[in-house]
Amino acid sequence: MRFLFAFCFLVCGLAQQGGAPPPAPAAKQDKIAMRQQIADMKVKAFEMQTQIELLEKQLHDVEEAEANQPLAVNAKQAPAKVRCSGHTKDGKRCTRMADPGSRFCWQHKSHR
Ligand SMILES: [Zn+2]
């Protein structure tokens, strides 16, 4: 509402100036113009603040997506040559290689 009012005020002022120059004193005109500018800038500042918050949120989302992506890409590029984290019956570390994307071999997968 405030924006609409300010906009209307501005357009009306411009239309008036375009026609006959108003006989109002210069100082008064300046004050009105300054108030218009201030109101206009406040509206713009509010809009920019909203845009900044929106952009920050979008940036945060993109950064979060990027933070999650490299792991998936790396997992694809370098298929896990990881040793199984499971243990054999006599307590020793399993010597098999883990399945890609898993920390366990085929045998220990089900014992998780
Ligand atoms: Zn194993």
Can you walk through the features of this model?
By secondary structure, this protein is mostly helical. The protein folds into two domains: 2-78; 80-112, no CATH class. Helix content is 62%, strand content 0%. The protein contains two helices and no strands. The chain has helices at residues 2-18, 26-77. Bound molecules: zinc ion. Zinc ion binds next to loops. Residues 84, 86, 94, 96, 104-105, 107-108 line the site of zinc ion.
Keywords:
112 residues; 2 helices; 62% helix; rod-shaped; binds zinc ion
N-end to C-end Cα span: 62 Å
Strand content: under 5%
What is the molecular shape?
rod-shaped
Structural class by sheet pairing and helices: mainly alpha
Query: Helicity range of the residues?
Result: 55-70%
Radius of gyration, CA atoms, in whole angstroms: 34 Å
Ligand identities: zinc ion
Give, in order, the helices and strands.
HH
How many individual β-strands? 0
Number of domains: 2
Tally of DSSP helical segments = 2
**Biggest β-sheet strands, sense, barrel:** none
The residue ranges in which pLDDT falls below 50 over 5 or more consecutive positions are none
Mean pLDDT: 79
Quick structural summary:
The chain is an all-alpha fold and 112 residues long. The protein is built from two helices and no strands.
